[in-house]
Amino acid sequence: MKKKMLIFIIFLPMILMIGYQVQHKSAKFYQNPIMEISKIKEEDGYKVIEGKILNKNGEFLKLTIDNQSVTGLTTHLRIKDQVLLNEDLSSVISEKRDGLAFSIVTVFLLILLLVGKTSGLRAFIGLCINLLLLLLSLRFEIVYPSIPTLFVIIIYAALSIIVTFLSNYGIHAFRLDLIAATYIIVLLGFLICFTALKFMGNKGIRFEEMQFLTRPYLGVFYSSLIFGGIGAGVDMIVTLVTPLKELIRQKPTITTLELVASGRRIAKDVTPSMINVLMFAYLSGSLPMIIFYLNNGWSLAATLEMHLSLEILRVFCGAFVILLSVPASLLCVLWKGGLQ
Prior knowledge:
Keywords: Membrane, Transmembrane, Transmembrane helix. Pfam families: YibE_F. The chain is built from nine helices and five strands. It has helices spanning 2-25, 71-74, 98-143, 149-169, 176-200, 217-250, 256-283, 287-295, 300-337; strands at residues 34-43, 46-53, 60-66, 82-85, 92-95. Strand 4 (82-85) and strand 5 (92-95) form a beta hairpin. It has a five-stranded antiparallel beta sheet. It is of the alpha+beta class. Helix 4 runs parallel beside helix 6 and helix 7 runs antiparallel to helix 9 (300-337).
């Protein structure tokens, strides 16, 4: 433990120094103009920003911005901050934070390696591969818009489950029955929610927050339901199968009824916490908009109805997958173990 702490203490300043260099030396790699702010002042509802363009000809620029139109982008700007501008140098697109992002990702990877060692590295590699597969899937959907988004994501789900099993649990956990079971319960959880939505005619579901999408919003939303079940399904299947396999190894004479009873006890302990984690992970993403609407005079009931209906449905889809993983795990163990 002391050795790990020493390694972390040694590498942390190095990571922060490299992140600082990335923040201040990477402007030349951007196509958009990057301005380093040297002066900020307020004038009659406008923010006047002066600074130097870092990645063009080094010219100084004075930019006047309407506070009401881009408050979220300019509220916390300070001297020495770097911002991305549009091509005609007339407005701020976003703040440049690549150095901060590099530092956070690198520290996360360092902690992952120190705590998880080889398995932590595999998990990070699996995360990168899954992200790459997702980007390729979305690119494919853009190139071939006639193919439904939902179909592309269903194919991606199968690939993602395989990659997740291999990266998180190694080649020893690569069992076709577990992968097939996970894929089936993810699709079943989605079909339950999909059928309910169709039966109710999407009543009570507020799609207003998806109004700016350039793709059919229903296909995008249905695809997000599948995402909610992939991680939950993989984790739950392995969480249940691993101890049940250990029970069979330690007690080869265990009966089917005893194994089922053990599986039920494990599921009772794990399922509530898994669903709670899923719920707070989804609902936390809506907190900024909820606070924004409440501060602008919306009632609590109207705000929650507007922003939580989609998130709650995603939670339900993931919860169905978690519940379905209990019988699926037991069936996989019983089939593989050949118990009577």
